Amino acid sequence: MRVLVTVPAEVERAGLCLLVEDAGHRVVAEAADGHSSLALAQEREPDIAIVDTTIPDVPALGLVHFLSQKYPGLQVLLYTERCSRDWMQVALGEGVRAFVLKRRVGKHLAPALRALADHRPYWEEAVDDALLDDLLERGPPPTMELTSREWQILQMSAEERTTKEMARTMGIAPETVDQLRARLRRKMGFRSKADLARYVIQSGRLNG
Predict the structure, then answer these.
(1) In this structure, is residue 131 part of a structural domain?
(2) Which residues are paired to 122 by β-bridges?
(3) Higher local confidence (pLDDT), 105 or 135
(4) String of b and e for 13-26 (b: at least 16 CB within 10 Å)?
(5) Lowest CB count within 10 Å: 61, 89, 104, 163, which one?
(6) Would you report the helix, strand and coil content of the chain in percent, each value rounded to 5?
(7) To 10 degrees, the CA torsion angle through 58, 172, 159, 34?
């Protein structure tokens, strides 16, 4: 399989590429951020994209959203520190097919790639089977009209980004991020940041 590896840390990316090659697949492109990943996906036409959830320039699931929309045949493996219920529901809604925890990558990357090559999902030791079945059976509730900036705040809240990280990604001041959050809480009746995250999780919507 032709694999695109998107990992910001150079040493970590190199190690992951070696594991991909050792598993019998070919790394056709390497990227350190989301924008480079999108450009390389168009140029190199990979079969599988490995996406690190810590990419710096865009929300990781925003990148997954674009990849899935532009390249329907591309399968995405999420390379992450954790897989909580919240994160899982959003990721599944965006088309993620495999989940590999960073601390288990040596054990699970090769079988995950093998599963994707056979067009099967993979989540061993990353996601509890009962939890996954529960999430797959749920249908998202209807959403309300929000601006693109409001959705961006919601999405990054779901990914547990800090105020500083949100501000850097959006190119605005941290104080402005806090103001947007406060406005969303008033607009939608939320009482906390957790409520913001819960809404985007339940809606299953991500906006690039």
Answers:
(1) yes
(2) 98
(3) 105
(4) beebbebbeebebe
(5) 104
(6) 55, 15, 30
(7) 10
